[in-house]
Amino acid sequence: MDSIRVALKEALIALEKGAREIKSCAIIRRDGIMLESTLPLSMGTGPLTKLDLKRGTATVARLGALLANTSDVVSGELGRGNLQQLVVDTPEGKMVLLGAGPEVILLCHVKELTPIVMLNISGACAKIKKILA
After folding, report:
1. Would you state the pLDDT for residue 124?
2. Which of 2, 8, 26, 78 is the 20 to 30 Å CA partner of 33?
3. Distance between CA 69 and CA 46 in Å, rounded?
4. Distance (Å) of CA 108 to CA 2, 51, 55
5. Is the dihedral of CA 40, 42, 44, 50 positive or negative?
6. Which CATH number fits the domain that encloses residue 65?
7. For the residues 124-133, what does the mean pLDDT come to?
């Protein structure tokens, strides 16, 4: 399991190095469990304790999974098939969620979503699928 975690972390680091527009990313199970992330150590205005950080990343994982699963249900109910990607606009950039296998989601926070960035994110999803296969 440790070798899988290392491979997942390396995939995220490679993704961020390949596209400067990507601020952070996370690999999340559809049940809301964080597998690996490059989320920043400070997600608020003040310093965080390790417990605060664990709670913060856990919240991101749960809510990211909730967004993806809810969107998947809505897409299915509308007869449009499974969700391919979800993009959420924020004042600080965009949140992009893509499936990286049947049970895993890749969540990326990007400054600007360009076709090249999307290609890099899609490539990372393929790499993550192989790691978890």
Report:
1. 96
2. 78
3. 32
4. 23, 23, 19
5. positive
6. 3.30.450.30
7. 94
Residue with tokens 């490539």: 123
Residue 50 lies in a domain: no
The pTM is what? 0.85
Does the residue 118 lie in any domain?
yes
Alpha helices, H only, 19-114: 50-77
Over residues 61-85, the pLDDT tens digits come to 898 999 998 988 898 899 988 778 8
Residues 6+ apart with CB under 8 A from 10: none
Joined tokens for residue 60: 């991101």
Please give the average per-residue pLDDT across 29-58, as a whole number: 69
Angle between helix axes 115-132 and 2-18 (nearest 10 degrees) is: 170
- Residue range of the domain that includes 93: 2-40+55-132
Total domains present in the chain: 1
